[in-house]
Amino acid sequence: MSDTILIAESGRTTGSPESRRMRREDRIPAVVYGRGMEPISISVARRDLRVALSGAAGMNTILDLTVDGTVYPAIVKEMQRHPVRRTVSHIDFMQVDLDVEITVGVPVRLEGEAKEVSMNNGLLDQQLTEVQVRTTPRLIPDEFVIDVSAMTVDSVITVADIAMPSGVSAVTAEDQPVVTVTILRNAAAAEASEGGDAEAAGGDEGGDADSGDAASDAD
Length: 219
Prior knowledge:
alpha+beta, CATH 2.40.240.10, RNA Polymerase Alpha Subunit, Chain A, domain 2, six-stranded mixed β-barrel, four-stranded mixed sheet
């Protein structure tokens, strides 16, 4: 995983009015913190951030966050978004020691076509979009790719089924489902309806006889 330089400006005034002004100027208010350092209020250009995180590692990109000439190896710890526009409104950068393990979320991507599931009117249900792992920053996987081609209607893929690279261990519980299969309701209802119709047909035959006996008794 290669490092990416991101230039930040320090000395910003905290508070909502200043933050709104920065966003109008297409800058994002942020803070960088970590062990052994005082938090620093900074801002980064929205375009620069977008470019910095556009690589395969995405949010787990190791950044050379440069503040007033000082470089802080850092990753994005938290990214807040506007509730409606979904634009980034604030970022927490965490300084990291490249030799010390941290816990991060790694995205999960499915590939392949589960033909047997489709043939049985089923759908894949991705329960987890990321898996929490513990590793050193340079060993963070870009993503976990799961091949679903061999899945059947009874299949369940759990965290334990994901091959972890050397130096990476799962924090998410190993029995946590990642991908399951859901049978479409209309298929299940059709089967139940067919069974119900068969039972009803059998019941109707007996019912006709009973009705005739009752009519005879009334006569």
